[in-house]
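[recover] target loaded
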């Protein structure tokens, strides 16, 4: 009996998320700490690299969404993997800050074409009944990538950051390109059905499942007219204020503000990742059973509490508390962001809808690292910046509370 190809894509998507999380997203903090010390570049300047990455992803989002909806994700993801690897190869040779930005732009373009957005759209198009479960499984790769951060930090310490960046580029291409070839367009175009269920259960005109699917088919223009589109987008962005600030600055805060080494701080990030895995597993179990928006609202409070514990940590138990609250909140909430949009707006234009949403989400992707970096350069520590971000994220809980399913068009 052959395995439903949708689950093969889930495995490939998880593998790509592992590579990008381990080499870039959660490892960026290690690069920031090392480059700040070696080059003397400010936190604001290094945070701008993360901002460039997020801005590029947001600006490309609508175009990428349209391309995926019309032509499918496979070629795009393959090109993205190559650019992602090439960007790290370039990073290993940089000498100046403009060169750093140039390498980051190439890495960001590759990440945009082969990362979270395109792989999640691809998975959404293959699942409905088990959508949250599939997306949570993909998120396992993102979470497991965090466990790779101590390996990155150790390699930087033992071999240098240039060797680490070069090796990351080679591994990204060698491992990522075969994974990219697994992706396909919609199941209907390849003789398969949603969730791999028998055709009558998923596509029969008389079946209740098809009726539900047809009812939830918004165009991008129709989605933009709903309050849910804007509330979910802003809530997602508020959550990423914390996620991106932690990814970029947590290691530096623990090193400079709390007195830990980069290796010790990386272990805290690893612990956070372990609890992120717990959150992903919890989402796998409850994702298709409970109201996702209320779960997301609770997770926003978890992000806020976790960041405050990190900010004012005076002992190891507080760092453990940060890892628990932030890790579970991230792992549980992350996959729900795309699942909620697909549940509310359907599959017809989900790529474009998610692409347009990225223009809102980028507020958090850019704002988190920049607010933390600028306020640290102004005050001398991360407390003011982290506290501000935690309060904003906590207030974002209300956005999800009010983000009810929109009325069906017509």
């Amino acid at each position: 009996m052959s395995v439903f190809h949708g689950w093969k894509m889930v495995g490939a998507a998880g593998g790509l998320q592992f590579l990008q999380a381990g080499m870039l997203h959660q490892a960026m903090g290690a690069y920031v700490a090392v480059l700040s010390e070696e080059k003397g570049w400010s936190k604001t300047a290094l945070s701008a690299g993360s901002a460039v990455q997020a801005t590029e992803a947001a600006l490309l989002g609508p175009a990428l969404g349209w391309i995926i909806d019309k032509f499918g994700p496979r070629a795009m993801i393959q090109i993205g993997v190559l650019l992602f690897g090439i960007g790290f190869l370039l990073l290993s040779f940089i000498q100046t800050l403009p060169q750093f930005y140039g390498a980051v732009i190439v890495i960001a373009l590759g990440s945009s074409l082969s990362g979270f957005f395109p792989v999640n759209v691809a998975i959404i198009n293959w699942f409905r009944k088990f959508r949250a479960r599939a997306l949570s499984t993909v998120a396992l790769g993102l979470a497991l990538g965090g466990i790779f951060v101590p390996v990155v930090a150790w390699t930087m310490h033992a071999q240098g950051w240039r060797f680490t960046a070069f090796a990351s580029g080679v591994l990204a291409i060698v491992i990522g390109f075969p994974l990219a070839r697994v992706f396909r367009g919609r199941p209907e175009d390849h003789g398969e059905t949603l969730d791999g269920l028998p055709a009558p259960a998923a596509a029969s005109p008389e079946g209740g499942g098809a009726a539900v699917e047809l009812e939830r088919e918004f165009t991008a223009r129709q989605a933009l007219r709903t309050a849910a589109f804007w509330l979910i987008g802003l809530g997602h962005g508020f959550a990423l204020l914390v996620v991106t600030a932690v990814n970029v600055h947590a290691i530096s805060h623990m090193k400079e503000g709390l007195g830990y080494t980069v290796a010790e701080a990386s272990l805290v990030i690893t612990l956070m990742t372990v609890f992120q895995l717990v959150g992903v597993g919890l989402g796998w179990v409850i994702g298709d059973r409970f109201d996702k928006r209320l779960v997301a609202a609770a997770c926003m409070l978890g992000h806020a509490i976790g960041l405050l514990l990190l900010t004012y940590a005076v002992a190891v138990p507080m760092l453990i508390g940060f890892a628990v609250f932030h890790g579970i909140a991230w792992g549980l909430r992350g996959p729900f962001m795309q699942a909620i949009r697909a549940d509310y707006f359907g599959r017809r234009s989900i790529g474009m809808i998610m692409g347009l949403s990225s223009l809102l989400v980028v507020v958090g992707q850019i704002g988190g690292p920049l607010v933390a970096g600028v306020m640290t350069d102004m005050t001398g520590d991360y407390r003011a910046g982290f506290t501000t971000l935690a309060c904003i994220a906590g207030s974002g809980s209300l956005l999800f509370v009010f983000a009810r399913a929109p009325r069906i068009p017509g």
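[recover] notes: Confidence is low (pLDDT under 50) at residues 201-214.
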